[in-house]
Amino acid sequence: MFTKIYYHTYSIKGHEYVVGATEKGLVFIGSCDRGLKEIGQFYFEAELVDAEQMTGKYANQIQEYLEGKRKKFTLKLDISGTKFQESVWEQLKKIPYGQTTSYTEIAQAIGNPKAVRAVGSAVGKNPVLIVIPCHRVITKNQQLGNYRGGLAMKRELLTLEGAIN
What per-residue confidence (pLDDT) applies to 144? Predict the structure, then answer.
């Protein structure tokens, strides 16, 4: 069965974001300037329908966040992954605005301290950038690490939150 994903591309603060949703909730936020093809990497069998009326409420909260007017999201999500990925994503949601944690600390928090690399992989498979704040995860050596949206975007988000200068 093919899932219908409603999407629209928004220009927010000089960058392009693809926002995707189903009838049940938000399923995707595409990273800056990467375009629509990125959504297909997550939902390769989905039917994509450009429908701003279905994604506007999600884009509004993302814009408020990027403008420094919002610190928490009140969006319904419709995402799924493996049990391990979902445990990592739940832990990411607990990282407070303006703070960072390491991949190692996430692995420890989910009770699997040796799974640091697997945590990194699960973080990279987070389909809803910004809302599930994977940008708040850095290396144990205080380096930015990787980010699906690119390091420039990660730096911008952490700077916006005051986590880095």
Answer: 92
